[in-house]
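Below is a filled-in request sheet from our internal design queue. Each sheet records the structural input a requester submitted and the sequence that came back. We keep these sheets so that new team members can see what a complete request looks like end to end.

REQUESTER: design group, bay 2
PRIORITY: normal
MODE: inverse folding
CHAIN LENGTH: 130
BACKBONE (tokenized):
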């Protein structure tokens, strides 16, 4: 496994810990943001292994999945599409009050759990085995 791949995976764990802490403190928009970031970094770890290069500076999860040739079950791929769109509005909010309203605790908790499923699935990829 490449050193930069390991670094991406370490950052994933750091971001997931941050997401959990944000959930505990009621900062639900940041839970969504950190979930997107954790999936992004997991995908970038695979891209490192697939291409042998540093991954592109993009936040587009669908693009990274294609570039890394990542296989996900359809329900997880559907969720990645949803959180991919959420990543844009949490990164560049036009109306903070509306954003907070749209991502209450139950949604943030659901997104975190689904994110964990996506990451666990991606980490089963043989390219991430040492």
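RETURNED SEQUENCE:
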């Amino acid at each position: 496994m490449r050193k930069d791949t390991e670094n991406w995976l370490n950052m994933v764990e750091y971001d997931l810990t941050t997401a959990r802490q944000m959930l505990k403190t009621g900062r639900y928009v940041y839970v969504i943001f950190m979930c997107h970031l954790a999936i992004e970094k997991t995908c970038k770890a695979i891209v490192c292994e697939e291409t042998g290069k540093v991954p592109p500076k993009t936040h587009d999860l669908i693009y990274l999945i294609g570039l890394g040739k990542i296989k996900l079950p359809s329900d997880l791929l559907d969720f990645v599409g949803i959180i991919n769109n959420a990543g844009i509005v949490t990164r560049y909010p036009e109306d903070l009050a509306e954003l907070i309203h749209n991502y209450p605790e139950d949604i943030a908790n659901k997104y975190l759990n689904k994110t964990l499923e996506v990451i666990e699935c991606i980490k089963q990829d043989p390219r991430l085995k040492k």
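SHEET NOTES:
- The chain has a mean pLDDT of 95.
- The CA atoms of residues 32 and 108 lie 6 Å apart.
FILED BY: M.R.
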